[in-house]
Amino acid sequence: MKKIHIPIAKPITTNEELKAIEEVLKSGLLAQGKAVGDFEDAFSDYIGVKNSIAVGNGTIALDIALKALGIKQGDEVITTPFTFIASANSILYQNAKPIFADVDDKTFNINPDEVRTKITGKTKAIIGVHLFGHPFDIKAMTEICEENNLLLIEDCAQAHGAEYYGQKVGGFGTGCFSFYPTKNITTGEGGLITTNDTRAAELCKLLRNHGQSSKYYHTILGYNYRMTDIQAAIGIVQLKKLDEFNRKRVLNAEYLNRHIKLDGLEIPHKERNVRHVYHQYVVKIDKDLINRDEFARYLTDNGIGCAIHYPLPIHRQPLYRDLGYTDENVNCPVAARLAEAVLSLPVHPLLTGEDLKYTVEIINNFGGIK
Q1: Which of 44, 90, 103, 109 is in the most buried spot, having the most CB atoms within 10 Å?
Q2: Rounded to whole angstroms, how far apart are CA atoms 94 and 115?
């Protein structure tokens, strides 16, 4: 019998990407150049913003964005504890202080009501994460920022093409994207900042390239945070495919939504006013009915990839414990509960109809439940 293996994620590249790479290699211009500029222009058009600034990875995008927006030592930035650690670490890079606000139990995104309780005189910005491809409550967060004179940073690392009331994320505040191999589109590694603030965009460009305003003329302290033309060439091709990739993710998610019938397993929630692009398909497990570890082993033993995103809230990470964060002074019980309940299932565009059917059959037969 053929051994079945359905991975939790899989990058999609074809001869188109190979041809684009070959053209760059033949040109002899491999560092940041024309292809980067073309990718930036195409991404700006896609999101609907004035400026895009391509950089080496998504973490760099967050770091550069915060620097360009003037976040500094002594400032506080509110963010979510239930996400990848880069969202919070980028605040530490500025010698500023991450302040964690709890998340919504349904969407897993930062809860605006909790954000309001964490604002102090030192608060300068909010980093919201469009987690797993579902936009956070941008309307509420924008109102909070306007009322309190705060900056809004959208961590869009998992939400390429996601929409809020018909507008693509990354165009509401300062957007930060990642193009890591498992993202909805990839450049291998890579990141990008989106903004309608031309002054901030120019500062981002200086910061990514040694503070160089013209060749060998350096006006500020900058970094080597550039994207290469090889990465950008891949990105140009991938961006053209993004809507189709996302369409397939949504169709796969809808199939799983209709057919998963396992007691104790809750399918992902989606608000009516958003386009969820399912970077991950994340279910919630009722620990009274299903042992998550046993269920994950069962899936793996049957060839279905799965993962826990994320098993430990950021404030419980050893780094943050050493910085003095505790459950008592952070108080994010929903994030802590979700960390013990979530499990990601395959939803990527390469899944076949047979893959989906098999996945559902295996899930629904767990523990003998039909």
Answers
A1: 90
A2: 21
Give the global pTM: 0.96
Residue 103 CA to residue 46 CA, distance in Å, equals: 29
At 219-274, the pLDDT tens digits run 999 999 999 999 999 999 999 999 999 999 999 999 999 999 999 999 999 999 99
Please, are residues 342 and 309 in contact by the beta-carbon 8 Å criterion? yes
Query: For the chain, percent helix, then strand, then coil, each to nearest 5?
Result: 40, 15, 40
What's the token pair of residue 271? 């608000």
Q: What residue has token string 């120019």?
A: 202
Three-class SS state of 112:
helix
| Residue 29: CB atoms within 10 Å | 13
Residue 251 makes CB contacts below 8 A (sequence gap 6+) with none
How is residue 84 written in tokens? Answer: 């990848």
Helical residues (DSSP H) of 94-215, grouped into ranges: 112-118, 138-148, 198-208
Report domain extents, the chain.
15-238, 242-368
Cis peptide before 310 (omega within 30 of 0): yes
The residue whose two tokens read 């049957």 is: 302
User: What is 15-238's CATH topology?
Assistant: Aspartate Aminotransferase; domain 2 (3.40.640)
Burial of residue 88 (CB within 10 Å: 0-12, 13-18, 19+) is: buried
Pairing of strands 123-129, 76-79: parallel
**What is the pLDDT at residue 269?**
98
CATH number of 242-368: 3.90.1150.10
> Cα angle vertex 336, ends 330, 341, to 5°?
170
Give the ranges where 219-309 is alpha helix by DSSP (H).
Answer: 229-259, 292-301
Structure tokens at 334: 């929903």
